[in-house]
Amino acid sequence: MESKFKTIIEPFRIKMVEPIKMTNYEQRKKILEEAHYNLFLIKAKDIMVDLLTDSGTGAMSAKQWGKIMEGDESYAGCESYYEMREVVEELTGMKHIYPTHQGRAAERILFGCVGGEGKIIPNNTHFDTTRANIEFTQTKAVDLVIEEGLSPEFDHPFKGNMDIKLLKGLFEEHKGSDRIPLCMLTITNNSGGGQPVSMKNIRETKALCDEYKIPLFLDACRFAENAYFIKMREKGFENKTIKEIVKEIFSYCDGFTMSAKKDAIVNMGGLLCFNEDSIDDKVKSMLILTEGFSTYGGLSGRDMAALGQGLKEVLEEDYLEYRIRSTQYLGDRLMKMGVPVVTPIGGHAVYIDAKAMLPHIAPLDYPAQALACELYLEGGVRGVEIGSFMFGHYDESGKEIASTMELLRLAIPRRVYTQSHIDYVLEVIAEVAKKKDKIKGYKITKEPAFLRHFSGHMAPL
Ligand code: F0G
User: Fold this and answer.
1) Which residue ranges have their beta carbon within 6 Å of ligand 1?
2) Which of 92, 298, 345, 448 has its CA 20 to 30 A from that of 211?
3) Is the whole model's pTM more than 0.85, yes or no?
């Protein structure tokens, strides 16, 4: 229900709390130095507001915790699987439904089955783990998001849309070959700023896939948030329920991977679902080999019980209104303060454009990392750099190449923080903004061969 009041009323009350340890500037300075200016290396207990990710960080409901107690831990055929299966089947209509321990396990199994040398898998934008799992099988991962989705300040209601023309071009180029085993569509488009995909675009993508006989798979981890954006922004959906919209979205796909750590509001879990019978045996074998028997994948019975319940709760409109409004609230206030952010504001996170905010720091001096460190120092807030430090690109001569965008992502965990936590974050950012001209860049002092942002060391310049 759309509220006439400005204050966001969280549609829940708090029954169980986790204390937050308060720290001061001096303490944080020491902690940051000991963590080598890499926020992944700070202990969570030393963070005051943790906006590192919305993945697996949500708060489960009393009903979900109740379900945890009911979990059936039988090795084969447990009731918790069948209960969860019923929810997934009703929502998505999929025939083959497999639990995995998280999203990337579903990706690894799917691409392990359909990928291979010479193959190509397009997407609006592949998330890092999706791309990595595709490339691991020697398959080429191609991003075909619409042009508007590539620029931080461009306004478009569905900036996550697939570029249908480019997709058609790719399909046409490889027509008659079996090089494209499937097409993916990520809803919402995380790497592009949590931007939604319209129903029209999903339909068009599906129609094109059908024309070229290519199955369409969704990367569906934020499916409910995407559905809410469709309801809010797309003509003809104003009066539909979220469930109706979600069902329509899934009716256009032939399968999906899902990290249940997002919109299923559980701390761990994933799904791999599809209709096609011909890959079922292979998927099942890989699942059993690497995750677990087909009725538990990588999960306990209790995990699946909570997951099924989470999938029901995420469809509640009051919840989604609060969810999208709170992200919007953070973004709107930042814009009012003159802090440059990726617009429009996406579903699960606000992305500060550090290149625009700190133009005096060269991209290869990692402005978004500098901003991340500053937010921690100022107020114990943890965000994550999505820029040159994370991507770590080098050209053939070994010279480092800057990323196209230098962003600081502030991801909002589900049902965890209240509006006053967000107000606090805003005050912290306002303080940082006051002294932004004095913020200095960083250099890398220790660089691991892979995924350097997780464990690399840095030092201020
Ligand atoms: N796809 C998307 C769009 C994601 O955002 C993620 C995870 C995954 C797949 C992989 O799922 O973590 O369960 O293995 N995103 C997290 C994030 C890590 O912080 O955005 P997973």
Assistant:
1) 53, 55, 102-104, 127, 129-130, 186, 190, 219, 221, 259, 261, 270
2) 92
3) yes
